[in-house]
Design goal:
480 residues, alpha+beta, Dna Ligase, domain 1, 2 domains, five-stranded mixed β-sheet, globular, disordered C terminus
Length: 480
Amino acid sequence: MRDGAVAAATYAEIRAWIERTPLEDLKRKSSEAELLFRRLGITFAVYGEGGDPERLIPFDIIPRLIAASEWKSLSAGLEQRVRALNAFMLDVYSEQRILKAGIVPSELVLDNEAFQPAMVGFTPPGGIYTHISGIDMVRTGPDAFFVLEDNCRTPSGVSYMLENREAMLRLFPRLCAQHRLAPVSRYPEHLLATLKSVAPAEAGPNPTVVVLTPGSFNSAYYEHCFLADEMGVEVVEGVDLFVSEDDVVFMRTTRGPQRVDVIYRRIDDDFLDPEVFRKDSLVGVPGLMRAYKAGNVTLANAPGAGIADDKAIYPYVPEMVRFYLNEEPKLANVPTYLCDREEDRAEVLANLDKLVVKLARGSGGYGMMIGPHADETMRAEFARRITEKPGDYIAQPTLSLSTVPTVTEGGIAARHVDLRPFILFGKNEISIVPGGLTRVALREGSLVVNSSQGGGTKDTWVLEDGPARQSQSQSQGGTP
């Protein structure tokens, strides 16, 4: 399945470029891209597997293209979905109307480890729980985009989206200039504006924003530092912050304590504040939740937002759209079996050779089985796991994902992709970067795009209508 009904027209110039460029030249440019990324230090960390934990995410130089008309439809659906998810979080931590109505089973929420009782009865500034969302999308047909999963906790990958575009502009300025590309470079500016918009009122017109990281051993540490640098704010660890007796957060600086108004936190809930969550956390800030609930600091995303990430909650998102917004969903879910339901479980166990089985609370491609690619031993193991702990698993049909051309050792070949757009939800508006991060399954026949499982990335081009623009950075020399 090629990538969309408009693929032939949209990819016409890219196809011509590929056909007139020798494979060795494409491979040489791929090597240049790797050197560029290595020089910039764009790595992710994988610990516990031996060898060098700092790795490059492979970057494929052939971009993934999306037509303006497709993006307009997608972005409308993304905005609708994020509004519904946020309304769900606001509801389950307050009135719980959707639970009382029986639309979402209470036990799926109240007994969920991602549900944070500490947030019950507290409304974040502006009622916004998920200021930064990453919604994973897949295409299965000419006009068929599906939401694969929602990431409302601490979605990562936006730094690769930005660096991928920068790499393409450096390596192929003429090719970029031949297309009218929707820009992505203003994402840090929009992110900072979003964070400032939800600052406490007393912060004034120029609130202090920081990025809170668990430190250099985190797999996304490069991104934490990158985004802080791009926004012109400090990246801090827990030891750099303290909470005063009157519940105000301060940052330790060489000039003395400086008040902090907004924290873009990249630390999981459990480690955020040892006074409320895990007592043994060494990366959090004691008293942070007191300051948060006192209205003296804003946390983005809000603690407890992970309840909307749960794959067992995911099947109910279309009903959330209807319940909270009184609208029909613009984006469809992938049909999903909940193994905790007896009828669904029986169907899954009878069709393990046809289904994809996932941990309801898993991520990174771990704890997953792709039935058609699994052997009998693995299927039997997953049958055992599902039978013993059915609530831990969901299952979905094996989708016929779209493919895009990719540079491989043997030549240009089709590889499966997904798409993670990033949605910013501020006090006054929702903004969406055109395109997002395209992840590509580099192994032949693989459907797993996660970087931890050998996947790579591509630049995502949303092609605006009208003639190409010749920006200075796009029109200077370079390979066609």
